[in-house]
Amino acid sequence: MPVQGIRTVSAARNGVGAFILQCKRIDFHYCDWAGSSRGMVGYLKHRLESFAKENPQIEIRVSPRPQKHPVVKGHYINGREKAICVRNLDLQQIAQKVNLLKEASGEKLKRTKKPVTSMNESVRGIWSPYHGGLKTV
Amino acid sequence: MHPSVRLLRQDLSSIYFPRSSIARQVRYNSSDKFSERVRRRLWGTDNPPGLKDPYGGQGVLERRWSGRQQPEEAEEADHDVDIAPPEDYVEAKTWDGLQRIGHLGKWSDLPPRKEDTYKPFLPERKFSKSSKVAPAAHQAAVEISMMRMLKKPLTNICDVTDHDPAILEMIMACRIQPSDSWKSTIKFPDQRTKEALIYVFDQLGPQAKKQKAKEANEENAEVESEIDGKLKQEYNTTRKGGSQALALKNPLIKFAFLKRFSQLTGQRLSDSLISSATRVKHLVEYLDKKGEQAPKKLAVTLAESSTLQKLPNVKIFKERQTPAHKDREVGRWKLIDAELRERGLVT
């Protein structure tokens, strides 16, 4: 009896049926003393609350990092981390960076070469030299 | 001759030993044998006159070298003898108490002397709260007034870092009557306090001036005894915060007051504050404000926020999070700790 492979019943396509946010945790690090953390301190005082309310599925951790520049670090469900240094950035710019981390998939950034990308297999199938118009030499 | 052939013709000793030693050896051999035979033939006797060595023996350098080598050899011979340690010898585990070997000519190499110990003028403690700054200002004002009354150098009071509690209590019991000239500013609660304070402050400064001060005290005592009855009345009338209204116009008084005030509070006063302050209250207000403006930690501010506390997905830490914290969170720390204890690295 030939061995049979397990047939896939469904493929995980995030967003088709349900959407799971890839970012699971965001860490905010700041320094109480340094001037480069001024924007970060402002963000934590005035914007963190609304951001946490809007994104209850993201765990938020705030901890000081003395004598260092402020950093926002995103943790993703694929196990990867993304850290962005937000030194000397103002409140708006930090909000943009946090949003970027929130929406990121956690994968490494890839260059898009083709105009269209899809997870579906090609309708034409994979090209084979033994099928189709065979050439005789 | 080809270079390679020349190399073959050479004796091996000429390659590995210095040429000078070989030449010397040849010279000595020749002097003993060939040259000696020639000399005998020339003179026709077995004992020809002249030196055996026609070159005059060892050269200057050789004689020096041999002279140097002899003591070294003697020292080496001494070292070969085993020196048995004494019976009460105990091997040192640390360098404490051992004789220090090395250069001892520099100041840093010498043991510290009495003059080398540094004692800062400002104490380590700093007062910034109004509950402690205002009494310090009052104390400084009383002290400067006392020194002025006794006609002593005003900055001599800085030699006293701490008063006896009883004396301090007396100083704090005094009242200050604000005046621009700092004359007769102190109002004592009673005559006994006044005498005690005068006696204490009289001890400060050089002896020569003490005599003058004593004379001044006697004169003052006579005058004061007359008005002793009025003293309590005036004391009650002067308001409590009188020291803060004192003027700092006289540069000598200002300098002495600032020096003492700075010493008592432990606070450095900026040049701009010193130049702009015209009354004592300006200094007190400045330090009060400075104490209030101490920056609050963000973690404390966030932790106090009730809305953030209610949110289940927000966690605020007051301390820096290290990899050890992560280990504890994951549960890895127990294993690390157990392993370290097992190996005896942590007790």
Question: Keywords for this structure?
Answer:
heterodimer; A: 137 residues; alpha+beta; Glutaredoxin; four-stranded mixed sheet; 3 helices; 21% helix; B: 347 residues; mainly alpha; 3 domains; two-stranded antiparallel sheet; 17 helices; 56% helix; elongated; ribosomal protein (chain A); mitochondrion (chain A); ribonucleoprotein (chain A); structural constituent of ribosome (chain A); Thioredoxin-like_sf (chain A)
List the helices and strands and how they pair.
The complex is a heterodimer of chains A (137) and B (347).
Chain A: E1 23-30, H1 38-46, H2 48-54, E2 59-64, E3 71-76, E4 81-85, H3 91-103
Parallel strand pairs in A: 1-2
Antiparallel strand pairs in A: 1-3, 3-4
Helix pairs in contact in A: 1-3
Chain B: H1 3-9, H2 12-16, H3 19-32, H4 34-43, H5 60-80, H6 130-149, H7 165-173, E1 175-176, E2 186-187, H8 191-202, H9 207-226, H10 228-237, H11 251-265, H12 271-276, H13 280-292, H14 298-304, H15 306-310, E3 314-316, H16 323-330, H17 332-342
Antiparallel strand pairs in B: 1-2
Helix pairs in contact in B: 3-4, 6-11, 6-13, 8-9
Helical residues, percent of chain B:
55-70%
* Name of the top-level CATH class of the domain at 23-103 in chain A: Alpha Beta
Identify the strand order in the major beta sheet of chain A.
2-1-3-4
Spans of at least 5 consecutive residues with low confidence of chain A = none
- Helix share bin of chain A: 10-25%
Q: What structural class should be given to the helix and strand makeup of chain A? A: alpha+beta
Largest interface: A-B, 21 and 20 residues
Low-confidence stretches of chain B: 7-15, 221-239
Mean residue pLDDT of chain B: 78
Provide the CATH superfamily of the domain at 23-103 in chain A: Glutaredoxin
- The dominant shape of chain A is elongated
* Net shape of chain B: elongated
Number of domains of chain B: 3
Number of helices of chain B: 17
